[in-house]
Amino acid sequence: MAEIKITNVQKQFGKVVANRDITLTIHDREFMVLLGPSGCGKTTLLRGIAGLDPIDAGSVYIGDTDVTDLPPRKRRIAMVFQSYAVFPHLTVFENVAFGLRMRHMPDQDVRKRAEAAAELLQITDLLKRYPAQVSGGQRQRVAVARAIAVEAEVLLMDEPLSNLDALLRLEMRAELKRLLKEVKSTVVYVTHDQIEALSLGDRIAVMKSGSILQCDTPLRVYDHPANEFIGGFIGNPPMNFLQGAVKVDGTKVSVQAGGASIQPPSAVAGILKQKITSGVRLGIRAENIEVISNAQPDTMMGKVLVVEPLGSHNLLTTLVGDQRVKVNAHADSLFQPDQTIWLRPTPEKIRWLDVESGLTLAE
Length: 363
Known about the structure:
Blueprint: E1 4-13, E2 16-26, E3 31-35, H1 42-50, E4 57-62, E5 65-66, E6 77-80, H2 92-102, H3 107-120, H4 136-149, E7 154-158, H5 166-182, E8 186-191, H6 194-200, E9 203-208, E10 211-216, H7 218-223, H8 228-233, E11 240-249, E12 252-257, E13 260-262, H9 266-272, E14 280-284, E15 289-292, E16 300-309, E17 313-320, E18 323-330, E19 340-345, E20 351-353
Parallel strand pairs: 3-8, 3-9, 6-7, 7-8
Antiparallel strand pairs: 1-2, 1-4, 4-5, 9-10, 11-12, 11-14, 12-13, 14-20, 15-19, 16-17, 16-19, 17-18
Helix pairs in contact: 2-3, 2-4, 3-4
């Protein structure tokens, strides 16, 4: 059992609060991703779980054991660092076997487990080489194999793919997903790359300024962001945000945005009656906006500013009133800068956000 329970964890460096009263439960054998911009506290939290940095307040449990004050070697963890941290004077085999030798395992068991980890990472043919004789991607595989070989209950990974080029990162991401299905460990994975987070994690904890803003499945975080920051941080391109004016006519509530009249769902309509003065923000993803040929009551008029052909589709940057809106269009569609088009957002895909707090309203 390797469930991780983090309760009211605080960590401060001088006047900077790196972790602010964080409480999080990571289930046994779950792949949890800590996602956020640089400086949000995700690596600090990971190091707190590892015991590399003592926490100022709160507690950390691994299974039924309170590991808050235990040294890293007693926490049943393995860690993969951003910088690979392979030993240049040791062969690939000895690098993979290093953690096993530190545990004073018999040579026969060391060889068996090191070779099994190497086979899993597909680096068996590299075992006699030194790190300087293999590529960056292969060195990263060595670092992962070393962590896996010790069969730790918890595997901690701190941006392990960030030093790789884009194509190799894509390949290693797929390899990691395949690999970690076979490894019976609880995984905590730190990244600032939202594509990695969406493709790898069972759940994603989105962090900002030392706090967790939302923790949910990748699909929920992407499609139902808890606030404007998350909608704008996750997605390529990020979610569009449009200012809307609330109009109440008797019992009927509508929102005017970009020249379109949009009917909110009933759960939101009741709330919007209180937002007539401040209005509301509409969050809409680029793939949830349809480009049509003529004006209609539920469409917004836009002017094409930029056309970016991306192979599978064209990404249009349009100007709706004084607001920029990104739209995905078919790859074979022909658009030119300064062309006028009409945009129709998919009603059920609109996310309604409070102007003042940025929080998502009821859906």
